[in-house]
Amino acid sequence: MKQVLIEQYGTPWEVARCAEVPDVGAPEADEVVFDVLAFPINPADLWFCKGSYRLRPPLPATPGAECVGRVTAAGAAVRHVKPGDLVINLQRENWTQRRKVKGSDAIPLPAGIDLRQAAMVRINPPTAALMLSDFVDLKGGEWVIQNVANSAVGRLAIVLAHQRGLRTVNIVRRPALADELRQLGADLVLVDGDDLVERVARETGGAKVRLGLEAIGGAASGRVADCLADDGTLVHYGSMSGQNPDVNRSNFIYRGVRLTGFMLGRFLARRTPEKIREIYADLARQVMEGRLFAPVDTVYPIDGIKEALLHADKGGRNGKILVAPNGPI
């Protein structure tokens, strides 16, 4: 079978290759085997290939934080999925044609779900959902502020916040994005800048913004923190700039602003397997209803992994780059 390997850390499209490897074999009693139908290339996957991600496994290694697959075999002790079912996988190393995992890591998805959307259900939708629920008990009508609002997580946060009756301030780098984000339910779309605090206060009517979501780092973190109300919470969940959050200490000392972080695995680990499946079942239902959607730019075959990685690293894309290891989807 075919599997993506990196044998040294470096430029992703230079270090990644599609290799022939032995098949995974039959499952043990508590295991599931599935064909990988599609996987997305996420920023964290690019960092993984570069060696700048938090995980640096012994090489050679296989990237891939998420995928969607179809079960081909299930062990005798596995009850919640069966051959033919669609699943997502809570483990990594998914850039391959076939996976074998513990049954508890295979999360069922409903039949008929769009495979391209299903490939992106594992990380971004629950990230947006849990950041809106696990830090601040927000009531309908309250405001949330976020930067990278045009990202996959940012777009999902707009939709999910709108469903909950929350209002969003969405910080972007290009004004041309405003109409598109408003169509998703964004209340305010503002271009980032040094006068952000004043514009947020003016456009929200001086509202008390208690939750901020931030994924750039550096001075951008500080600008979002400055927009928060006293005792507000800033959630840092990524660093597109590669810099640590730069937040003025007066926010902490005099205003009681809290800076915390989010990593999906850590927050899922607080929940039972049954609750995790409930979370994904709800998100999958919303995908099937068309309420949650992430645009896809191009789908590549696994043999084209180098071209796919190069494309994923470019700006100006119209959505996510996917790879279909077992044929077109």
Short description:
Helix content is 29%, strand content 23%. It is of the alpha/beta class. It has 2 domains: 150 residues, Quinone Oxidoreductase, Chain A, domain 1, CATH 3.90.180.10; 139 residues, Rossmann fold.
Can you give a write-up of this model?
- This protein is of the alpha/beta class and 329 residues long.
- It folds into 2 domains: 2-120 and 294-324, Quinone Oxidoreductase, Chain A, domain 1 (Alpha-Beta Complex); 127-265, NAD(P)-binding Rossmann-like Domain (Rossmann fold), CATH 3.40.50.720.
- Helix content is 29%, strand content 23%.
- It has 12 helices and 15 strands.
- The chain has helices at residues 12-15, 43-50, 115-118, 124-133, 152-163, 178-184, 196-203, 219-227, 249-253, 264-268, 273-288, 305-312; strands at residues 2-6, 16-20, 31-40, 68-74, 86-89, 98-102, 106-109, 143-146, 167-172, 188-191, 211-214, 233-236, 258-261, 296-301, 320-324.
- The strands form 3 sheets. Strands 3, 4, 5, 6, 7, 14 and 15 form a 7-stranded mixed β-sheet that branches.
- Helix 4 (124-133) crosses helix 5.
- The longest helix has 16 residues, at 273-288.
- It starts with a strand and ends in a 5-residue tail after the last strand.
